[in-house]
Amino acid sequence: MNPSHVLVLNSGSSSLKYQLLDMARARPGSGSAAGRLTSGIVERIGEGPVADHAAALKQVSEELDRQGLGLDSPKLAAVGHRVVHGGTRFTEPTLITDEVVAEMEKLVPLAPLHNPANLAGIAVARQLRPDLPQVAVFDTAFHATMPEAAARYAVDIETADRFGVRRYGFHGTSHAYVSRATARLLDKEPSEVNTIVLHLGNGASASAVRGGVCVDTSMGLTPLEGLVMGTRSGDLDPAAIFHLARVGGMSIDEIDTLLNKRSGLLGLCGDNDMREIGRRMAEGDPAARLAFDIYVHRLRKYVGAYTAVLGRVDAIAFTAGVGENSAAVREAALRGLDALGIEVDAVSNAIRGATARLISASSSRVAVAVVPTDEELEIATQTYALVTG
Ligand code: ADP
Predict the structure, then answer these.
(1) Does the active-site annotation cover 139?
(2) Among 17, 265, 322, 371, which is best to mutate for testing ligand 1, by the most ligand atoms less than 8 A from CB?
(3) For Mg(2+), which residues are the binding ones (predicted)?
């Protein structure tokens, strides 16, 4: 019996999420529970008993041991690591070697908060099981197919190239998974469908996927660009930054914090949870209403833009916390778009569910779907495919 377990590790700056999957049973589209053996999270890394990522992974490993599924289990085929930024260097899932780690270290300036945490998780896991194949799966990878016209900013080209200033995109693992799952829902091959994927979680991004290949996405050099998010502003005139520095006397770090952590829904109304915003709107709260309206307006702009980018849209897929759960956001984002062939069915949209489903009216030319994302399953699938050749 060949080893078929894959441990997926998602190391953040202060948390370590893990999930163990049995790839002999996990099948895309078989429902999120199939093949999932166990999962969990170690939080508050750097505080108290969990001094660092080594201590966190030790805790995970002990927990897995208790379930008879430890890191030394002969059933374990590989570890798959989520890595946020692959730059232009990594556009595929990559078997981790010393050389690959050295290359990944060079990318830290592009993701100074995320990549060091990812690297810490990789280092510890490799120490524990140096013999085991370990694979890096990059959040940027799915977007590497964007044509230069979409990936480039209109910035002095030498300066841009010198500092790597271009659009990389993020949430790629989710956009890849959801665009394929949407094709499956329509009983088509990914190559046959053009899809707009709206990943609306705390972070949010849109992508335009033509025949399974990403041709545009809303996040850019960093995850700040694009849609309105829980705490990020999304698109903004870059001159607002000069203005805040010159007139507001703010430092670069203060502006960074303002736009990434204190803006978006939170900055507009004091809440970044769409559930709470919905409750406040029902009570007639004007700040919550305005935050919702700005969020939805931006979303509609991207749907329109990506409709033009794709030329023909077959499906629009909503995913992640807000996309999977907020019928109000879905309805408002696509309201009145009949002229684009987009018609949401109010009844199907209101029904809650945990599996991929259509919410478009039967007369809608464009299929509108709610498709739960599963980044861990996608990382495990890519990892397993790489190590089993
Ligand atoms: P992350 O980006 O952190 O992975 P998620 O994809 O889990 O986030 O999305 C989290 C967000 O989803 C929450 O901040 C909240 O706004 C939203 N959300 C979760 N459940 C619901 C719900 N039932 N209705 C509306 N929004 C929801």
Answers:
(1) yes
(2) 322
(3) 10, 375
Residue closest to 343 by CA, chosen among 369, 368, 320: 368
DSSP string for residues in 173-214: HHHHHHHHHHHHHTTS-GGG-EEEEEEESSSEEEEEEETTEE
Residue 382 DSSP code: H
How many Cβ atoms are within 10 Å of 233's Cβ, its own excluded?
22
Average of pLDDT values for 190-218? 98
Burial of 259: CB neighbours in 10 Å, binned 0-12, 13-18, 19+: buried
187-370 matches 5-138 in CATH topology: yes
pLDDT, tens digit (0-9, with 9 covering 90-100), for 349-388: 999 999 999 999 999 999 999 999 999 999 999 999 999 9
The answer, yes or no, to whether residue 32 has pLDDT greater than 60, is: no
pTM for the whole thing? 0.95
For residues 29 and 97, the model is more confident at: 97
152, 91, 169, 150: which is closest to 306 by C-alpha? 150
Query: Would you list the domain boundaries of the chain?
Result: 5-138, 187-370
User: Which percentage of the chain shows pLDDT scores above 70?
Assistant: 98
pLDDT of residue 12: 84
Ligand 1, atom 12: nearest CA belongs to which residue? 321
CA–CA gap between residue 240 and residue 358 (Å, rounded): 40
For 5-138, give the CATH class: alpha beta
Query: CB–CB of 2/133 below 8 Å?
Result: no
Candidate of 227, 261, 265, 274 to mutate for ligand 1, largest count of ligand atoms within 8 Å of Cβ: 274
